[in-house]
Amino acid sequence: MKTIPSLISIWLMLAIGLFGSNHTAFSRQVHSSWRAGVAKVDITPQESIWMAGYASRDHPSEGVRHAIWAKALVLEDAVGNLAVLVTTDLVGIRQELSLRIRDRLKHQFGLSRDQVILNSSHTHTGPETDYARYQFQLDEVQLGKIKKYAENLENKIVELVGNAMESLKPVYLYSENGVTRFQVNRRNNKEATLVHHNELNGPNDYAVPVIKVADQKGEMMALVFGYACHPTVLADYQISGDYAGFAQLELEKLYPGTTALFFQGAGADQNPLPRRSVPLAIQYGKALAASVERVLTEDMKPLTGNLSTAYAEIDLTFANPTPNREELLEITGSSSGYPEYLKQNANVLMSKLDKGESLITSYPYPVQAWKLGDQAIFAFGGELLIGYSIALKNIFGPDIFVMGYSNDVMAYIPTSTVLEEGGYEGTRSPIFTTPWASNIEERIIAEAVKLAEKVGIRSQEAPVTDQ
Ligand SMILES: [Zn+2]
User: Fold this and answer.
1) d(CA 137, ligand 1 centre) in Å
2) Which of 11, 139, 148, 200 is 20 to 30 A from 345 (CA-CA)?
3) CA distance 255 to 167
4) Crossing angle between the packed helical segments 242-254 and 278-297, to the nearest 10 degrees
5) What single DSSP character describes residue 405?
6) 374 pLDDT exceeds 60?
7) pLDDT at position 197, please?
8) Structural domain boundaries of the chain?
């Protein structure tokens, strides 16, 4: 039987609709307790420079594929708690440069360690910033260029954060995890024979974390997104941000006026496969951008509440004692079997001993947690393996965001499983002759749990099971 809606019910539907939308607009205004400021700066090298990421490189950059960027997003809650995320199209910012930048941010803007995350995309087609590492490998001209670039970068990042802080205005924040799947676990799948495989081995985390920052009119002004995968599609001599650079370009084209900031997740054992062509880097960039676009198109979780931040450095120890002069001399010898870049590392360590310095016996490893309204964010130093993201999601649930490559990129950070298995990501600490101590995962996760408690991130009640 057909029913005709009465005039009264039509009127009621209209009234609910109108009231509903007004009510939404009203409650949005009420919840706009955040302020945000965003800024970006071009960090493309102005001259040919040594490139970071692959030890096999034998000459400096030949050109620029696209500009690379440092970007800053400052976030402030209703009571003035403030934090800044800086993302960079770089392979990583090592301890010395990171300390210089963060010390200046403290001095100039009063930002303490817990308030700053310096994340790098880990692009393998960016400039080198670490002078000390190459001191016995490159000539004075090349070393001078690295030094100059790093000094400029330091100044640019400090100024960038200042600019972002000056542009603070009321915003709405939203977050959600998306998904895309072009990364492959590179330890457990063979790149060379991938084409013959119809099953891939894990572990993996396909999450695409997204934070949307919209102004009071609802216009998006900034967008943070991440992925856990090495930007190693490209290995040529053109400066670029790799797939992550293309993804940012694509999103800033899709959403004019929006600054898109990419952060690297726990992508240490994840590679974009297949790889090694520019069209593939573009494809992966667009795939990542499309997953962000999907998240933005659907309902996102509005972030309410306050901002809490915590930071700690734990002294990670090594499995073996650090080498003495004789052992280092042996490594640098022609018959040692060590690759050239490790021989150079041995020279760097030896020069420390020659100067009367002793080698480190532990490493101050940065661990950080932010609670941005209801959004939990963890940031870790080093090349973080995907197992950490999975372990933390088992504790805190699938909605958390996990960053690696933050504040200091000193070495691979294996899980206890990978450390036991050995292989490329499992065998070396910053002192390359020894792996990390076997309790590395336990200690890092324990510190993350401690910081989570401090900022009020709760563990999930019970693991989610399939119905
Ligand atoms: Zn790497």
Assistant:
1) 20
2) 148
3) 20
4) 50
5) S
6) yes
7) 85
8) 34-309+364-420
90 touches 121 (CB < 8 A)? yes
Cβ-based neighbours of 326, under 8 Å, separated by 6 or more: none
Q: Give phi and psi for 324, each to the nearest 5.
A: -95, 180
Q: Which tokens in the block code for residue 16?
A: 């609910």
Q: Partners of 406 in the beta sheet?
A: 119
* Protein residues within 5 Å, CB atom, of ion ligand 1: 383
Comparing CA positions, the residue from 358, 378, 362 lying closest to residue 370 is: 378
Residue with tokens 């420079």: 49
For the chain, what is the mean pLDDT? 93
How far is the centre of ligand 1, averaged over its atoms, from the C-alpha of 386 (Å)?
12
**pLDDT band at residue 67 under the 50/70/90 scheme:** very high
pLDDT(142) > 60: yes
Gap between the Cα atoms of 370 and 354, Å rounded? 42
Map tokens 């370009």 to a residue.
Answer: 249
Rounded distance from Cα 378 to ligand 1 centre (Å): 19
**Residue range 217-267, pLDDT digits in tens:** 999 999 999 999 999 999 999 999 999 999 999 999 999 999 999 999 999
Question: Do residues 208 and 225 make contact, with C-beta atoms less than 8 angstroms apart?
Answer: yes
Tell me the CA–centroid distance for residue 19 and ligand 1, in Å: 53
pLDDT given at position 262: 99
CA of 296 to the centre of ligand 1 (A): 29
Amino acid at 92: G
Secondary structure class of 23 (helix, strand, coil): helix
The CA 466 to ligand 1 mean position distance, Å, reads 34
| 230 C-alpha to ligand 1 centroid (Å) | 6
Q: Does pLDDT of 1 surpass 60? A: no
- Residue 270 CA to ligand 1 centre (angstroms): 9
